[in-house]
């Protein structure tokens, strides 16, 4: 192989590797296209609908924050813009008694068998936006944080008044950092 060829090949390979690495760091945040083009910005900021009108967890009975039923959307939309093609989709679900397959945006990977519930977090008065970002500004919901162990711990470590003594020792630890809190 001639020297020029070698140099050119090297430059070529370096350029490809560099562009792959660059593309990785520039990866767009996760924001899946939803079955209906529903906008939080429009409903929350402009139309002043509160989060808990749509998302509730049965006063703490479920760990999940439920998505509103098609029936709830239809409460308004049978009268508001019923002819809009996107609104038609939700009205058809309400008619048929089905729900759109909303795509998960925030989701802990199933591999770690992690236990998460909204209940203690809402009781501790943590804002939705601390974990989900400025939802009220989003036309399409974008993932705000990667729910990794490091992220959970970074907050749990700093939560005050959680100190407990390890039995039979004088060692003090933050109860919320016990493995068994999140891995059950
Ligand atoms: C009019 C009903 C309605 C209101 C009001 C509303 N939401 Fe939603 N929300 C939805 C629907 C429908 C979805 C599922 C489709 C989507 O992601 O856009 C959703 C999805 C979400 C998700 C993504 C869940 C996931 O899969 O990770 C979050 C987070 C969220 N909402 C938070 C909020 C917060 C915070 C507020 C108040 C600032 C709010 N929502 C107000 C209807 C509503
Ligand atoms: C301490 C952080 C935290 C707070 C505060 C929080 N969430 Fe979440 N939320 C999460 C995590 C983590 C998930 C993913 C849960 C999973 O994968 O099991 C999630 C999931 C969701 C989902 C998808 C359905 C579900 O429950 O898995 C919705 C909707 C949602 N949150 C809405 C809200 C709303 C509305 C508020 C405020 C009332 C809120 N969240 C407050 C961390 C939080
Ligand atoms: C409390 C009443 C209310 C509820 C509940 C509600 N909406 Fe709306 N929605 C509105 C209003 C008001 C508008 C703005 C209409 C306009 O532009 O004149 C709107 C606009 C929309 C639009 C845009 C229509 C267009 O073509 O411009 C869509 C799509 C939509 N809503 C879907 C939904 C879905 C899906 C749900 C349930 C998750 C929902 N809405 C729940 C009041 C509501
Ligand atoms: C922004 C801060 C914050 C983040 C982020 C956070 N937590 Fe928490 N977590 C808390 C607070 C505060 C409590 C309530 C402590 C108390 O009961 O006084 C709590 C309580 C819990 C509890 C109940 C503990 C018990 O037994 O009383 C579990 C389980 C939990 N968190 C899991 C998680 C997981 C899993 C994640 C990440 C996906 C996470 N948390 C992220 C602040 C946070
Ligand atoms: C505050 C919550 C929390 C605590 C406390 C916690 N973890 Fe985790 N852990 C997580 C979450 C969330 C994940 C999933 C991370 C992901 O999917 O990126 C995870 C993932 C893991 C995994 C990787 C599992 C897999 O295959 O993905 C291991 C191993 C693990 N944790 C061990 C531990 C050990 C050991 C402790 C105690 C020293 C501990 N964790 C304490 C939240 C926690």
Describe the structure.
This protein has 184 residues and is mainly alpha-helical. The chain is flat. The chain has helices at residues 3-25, 40-46, 51-54, 70-77, 85-96, 119-123, 128-132, 149-156, 179-182, and strands at 163-165, 172-174. The chain has a domain at 1-30. Bound molecules: heme C (HEC) (5 copies). Residues 36-38, 42-43, 47, 49, 68, 72-73, 75-77, 80-81, 84, 86-87, 90 line the site of one heme C.
Describe the SSE topology.
Blueprint: H1 3-25, H2 40-46, H3 51-54, H4 70-77, H5 85-96, H6 119-123, H7 128-132, H8 149-156, E1 163-165, E2 172-174, H9 179-182
Antiparallel strand pairs: 1-2
Bound molecules: heme C (HEC) (5 copies).
Instruction: Tell me the structural class.
Output: mainly alpha
**Attached small molecules:** heme C
Query: Biggest sheet: strands side by side, in what order?
Result: 1-2
Give the SSE string: HHHHHHHHEEH
Shape: flat
Total number of helices: 9
Give the biggest sheet.
Answer: 2 strands, antiparallel
Rounded to the nearest angstrom, the radius of gyration is 24 Å
Straight-line N-to-C gap: 60 Å
Helix content: 40-55%
- Roughly what fraction of the amino acids lie in strands? under 5%
What low-confidence regions span 5 or more consecutive residues with pLDDT below 50?
none
Chain-averaged pLDDT: 90
Number of strands: 2
Q: Which features characterize this protein?
A:
184 residues, mainly alpha, two-stranded antiparallel ribbon, 9 helices, binds heme C
In short:
With 184 residues, the chain is mainly alpha-helical. The protein has 9 helices and 2 strands. The chain has a domain at 1-30.
């Amino acid at each position: 192989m001639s020297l020029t060829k070698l140099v050119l090949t090297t430059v070529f390979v370096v350029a490809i590797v560099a562009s792959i690495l660059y593309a990785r760091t520039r990866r767009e945040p996760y924001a899946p296209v939803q079955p209906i083009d529903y906008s939080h910005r429009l409903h929350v900021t402009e139309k002043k609908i509160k989060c808990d009108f749509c998302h509730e967890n049965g006063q703490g009975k479920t760990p999940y924050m439920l998505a509103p039923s098609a029936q709830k959307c239809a409460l308004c939309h049978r009268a508001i813009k019923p002819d809009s093609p996107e609104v038609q989709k939700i009205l058809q679900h309400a008619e048929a008694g089905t729900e759109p397959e909303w795509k998960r945006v925030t989701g802990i990977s199933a591999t770690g068998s992690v236990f998460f519930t909204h209940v203690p977090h809402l009781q501790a008065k943590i804002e939705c936006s601390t974990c989900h970002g400025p939802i009220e500004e989003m036309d399409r919901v974008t993932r705000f944080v990667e729910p990794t162990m490091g992220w959970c711990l970074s907050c749990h470590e700093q939560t005050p008044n959680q100190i407990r003594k390890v039995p039979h020792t004088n060692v003090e630890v933050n109860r919320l950092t016990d493995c068994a809190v999140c891995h059950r």
